[in-house]
User: Fold this.
Amino acid sequence: MKTRIKSFRYPVVLITLALVLACDKSELEPLGMDKDADAPGGVALKTYNNGMINAYSNNTVIAWNTAIGQAVDNSFPPPAEARIYAMVSLAMHDALNNIVPKYEAYASDNSTVDASGLTKEDLLPLADAAVSQAAYDILTNLYPPSQPAAAALLESVVSDITDPELRTLGIDVGHAAASALVVKRSSDYPLVFSSYDLGVAPGVHQANYMPWAVPNPPVWPANAVYAANLGDYDPFGMATGDQFRPVPPYPVDSPEYATDYNEVKRLGCTSCPDRSAEQTEIGAFWVENVSSSTNRIARSLAEQQKLDGWETARLFALLNIAQIDANISSFEGKYHYNYWRPITAVRAGDNDGNPATAGDASWTPTFTTPPTPDYPSTHAYTGAAAAEIFKQFFKKDKISLKVISPYYLPGVERTLTSFTQIGRENALSRIYIGYHFRKAVEAGEQMGHKLGEYVFNHSLQERRKSK
Assistant:
């Protein structure tokens, strides 16, 4: 008789289960295992990881990422959506890596997990159950209306697992991974609208001078902004919320500001004649939440590049750590600088103290401006962070990928030839729809790439065998 899996340890849960097998000699030496006295349990981590993990497909991981999208895509403010994606993705990643510890877990110490008793044949059902339960627990906890669809997906996965002991063990691992994640993020607070009135000085964000400033209780009060304290959130991957704060925006009386002002005034309004058809398409194509668009891209890449389940879970986790951290970092900058939006600036252009900015009291952007300050652009920040994660993960920039925008330009398809193009088009789109000045876009793009690189190099690293 032998134990397939000796133990799984979490910060708040210790699971020790022994699965009893028939004493078949073919099961005594799992595929790909070599003895190595330097590794935990006398097993070379890299060897048994590669021997089994490569055989685990990404089907279930992708199915749950798709389920997140079906539940929340473009239905929440960007930070709230990004947090849901991050939490569910990390739960799946941690569940897998507390079965076979290929990568560091986020919410638990998986350094003592010993997979030396696990066979390749048992990996699929065990991993599927763990991934599905972890994803279900977090998704339904964060967004209860997702429960019916999530329950159906969970049942479709676990009902195919014929071994009841493997099913139970996988479910327990998934529960524990989700529980550890909830404990780790217990200090997170709700992101809400709040009153915000800094006056009407030129250059200052004016929540009382925006189309959405009319009171609309209980959704938001008069003179309101969204998530003014998001910059104080405990980051998921970066060290501090201000780690990647950009340099200050241009002074309103500067010639550089006038250049940016006149560009967005000329290109960002509802019927700007100078905006080209290509610019108009780019503006609308990338207007959806970045977590929505980039997770859809990540699913396509995982399938195109034939990633295994562990690789796919790590890709989703890294991408969404970068997404939520880019939201945290950009909001920290927004409420540090409190810079006004183009809609306020252009309508007040005759009174801003800059002779090169002619005002237009009726100027209106292509889409309704979000209730947050301008600088830096969160959209540019998150798009560049995603592009950098993709570039680092796949160790290249050039790609060949066709993408769609189902919410604002259904039926339109754009061909992407590089990850850099994703970040650049996504960033420039905010000028073309009148949301941001170019300086806000460029600062967001620059900081997003830096944050993405940092997250990739400091989060969820591959585990090395003990020396």
User: Anything to note?
Assistant: The first helix runs from residue 25 to 28. Residues 193-458 form a domain with the Vanadium-containing Chloroperoxidase; domain 2 fold (CATH 1.10.606.20).
